[in-house]
Amino acid sequence: MSHPLPADVTLIVPCYNEAENVSALVRGVRKALDGISWELVFVDDDSPDGTSSEVVREAQDDPRIRLIRRVGRRGLSSAVIEGALSSTAPVLAVMDGDLQHDEAILRDLVTPLLAGDADIAVASRHIDGGDSAGLANRWRHALSRAGIRLAQSILPVPLSDPMSGFFALRRSVFEAAIPRLTGTGFKILLEIVLSVPGRVRMIEVPFVFRPRLAGESKLSPLVMVQFLGMLIERGCKGWLPTRFVLFASIGAVGIAVNLLVAEMARLAGADFRTSQILGTACAILANFQLNNRITYLDRPLRGRRWLPGLLVFVLGSAIGAFGNVGVAQLLYDTHGHWSRSSAAGALIGVVWNYAIASTLVWR
């Protein structure tokens, strides 16, 4: 009985609602990597459009195609990490499942790595021969340019396209980076480069970012918010986790919501107590929804889990508010400094609420 040769290259494709693109992508990969021992791992976040079914259909005809179907978990970076951990190949490649990445240049990415001439190869839209024309509109171009400038400001090595989702790396590089990866957000290349101890040999290969033919783009202001959180974490050397940065930022939004609703209630004729109750209730609900959509995007509460999660969040926030006031009052009685006591109380409240959210609400 013959056995298939072990793969030299594992191509990881994180996907969500890409059913219409699966067959075309498989055909392109077969052509691009002809003569190279490869496997293709689709990591699907339980897409409702039948992406997993399409992958299964392709895998029945080709054992080099595998599926990891994730239920109850979301996120591109964590999907890439799970796909990489499922592989034993010496070279790992990553590309999107939307056909905007040109699979024809896969050979140019992986060949230098297989030969040992580089550690990371990045498909770049921003060197000679590359183009980002496939981005849908001026807004997406602006988001991409802003992200690139921010990323380049903290990178330890020159990289023209740190926002690229199309790259390849040697397994040894991934294994060196994995203890420091958070798996949050959508820009896994940047996080890997920032997590590898020491310098790596990096090359860039030009590619043209193609227009999307099917499905929906994943680039959005939400992605950029998560990206900013990750940059802040890296700028603080990991002392402030990305989730905590996002959680605290949303808390600041909640304060603004509280003040706005309370003022609107006052103008409508409500007394002070009623306006404060309304403002607080709206702030808590806004914080819960924003955290569900942004901070904990990879594990959102839906259906029957939403209301119990909200109730625990409200209870935890109420306890946190009492702790906030108690700490602030104690410090004020001891030291008599108004602003410092208030800030300390607020910090205790945020940390408490974050602990409750991470351990009891979005477990």
UniProtKB/TrEMBL annotation:
Keywords: Glycosyltransferase, Membrane, Transferase, Transmembrane, Transmembrane helix. InterPro entries: DPM1-like, Glyco_trans_2-like, GtrA_DPMS_TM, Nucleotide-diphossugar_trans. Residues 11-175 form the Glycosyltransferase 2-like domain. It is a multi-pass membrane protein. GO terms for cellular component: membrane. The chain crosses the membrane at residues 244-262, 310-332, 344-362. The keyword Transmembrane applies. It is found in: Membrane. Coiled coil: none annotated. GO terms for biological process: glycolipid biosynthetic process; polysaccharide biosynthetic process. Residues 247-362 form the GtrA/DPMS transmembrane domain. GO terms for molecular function: dolichyl-phosphate beta-D-mannosyltransferase activity. CDD domains: DPM1_like. Pfam families: Glycos_transf_2, GtrA_DPMS_TM. Belongs to the glycosyltransferase 2 family. This is Dolichol monophosphate mannose synthase. It comes from Swaminathania salitolerans.
